[in-house]
Design a protein that fits this description.
Number of domains: 2
Radius of gyration: 18 Å
Helix content: 40-55%
Number of helices: 7
Strand content: 15-25%
Mean pLDDT: 93
Structural class: alpha+beta
Strand order of the largest sheet: 1-6-2
Number of strands: 6
Shape: elongated
Largest sheet: 3 strands, antiparallel
Order of helices and strands: EHEEEHHHEHEHH
Low-confidence stretches: none
Length: about 170
């Protein structure tokens, strides 16, 4: 990924971090819709899980599985197996570590008989209260060079929020 940097971000308050990143993504997405360049190429939290269904790869957080159940295009047996494993993970939420999630995902894929659940945070060295972010510096510089007025304020607000965490 030419022109990008990756960074592991440590935070103390997960809710505040998520609120801030939502604000940053909303601002950059607005600017990208007009100028075609989004500086944030991705954010991965320590508890993000990917599930490959019949349509695409869907990303969700460990505790959000019940909300994603209806969006997954998988057969009922597969869904029930996944539900059992995710319920087990969620029941151990307070002491859950990335190693535990990696183990559950490995066991879940074995139970499913195929690799359809993915967990990258362990391989990236993330832990609780960490995130991995990919920033496209070229897109950041581009937006900085073409924006003025209210759009420049939106850009600067997004960069300011982002810099508090980096």
């Amino acid at each position: 990924m030419a022109g990008t940097i990756s960074k592991i971000i440590h935070f103390r308050d997960e809710e505040e971090f998520l609120d801030d990143m939502t604000e940053v993504m909303e601002r950059f997405s607005y600017l990208a819709s007009k100028y075609g360049h989004n500086p944030i190429e991705g954010i991965l939290l320590w508890d993000y899980i990917g599930v490959q269904d019949e349509e695409s790869l869907k990303i969700f957080r460990v505790g959000e599985f019940p909300y994603f159940e209806g969006t997954l295009k998988v057969d009922l047996e597969t869904l029930r197996i996944m539900e059992r494993y995710f319920d087990e993970m969620e029941s151990k939420w307070d002491e859950l570590r990335v190693e535990d999630i990696a183990y559950f995902v490995e066991m879940l894929n074995e139970a499913l008989g195929r690799q359809m659940v993915f967990y990258e945070a362990y391989d990236l060295g993330l832990d609780r209260d960490t995130a991995y972010i990919v920033i496209n510096i070229m897109n950041l510089h581009y937006l900085e060079s073409v924006l003025d007025g209210r759009e420049r304020e939106i850009f600067e607000e997004a960069v300011g929020i982002l810099m508090r965490h980096i």
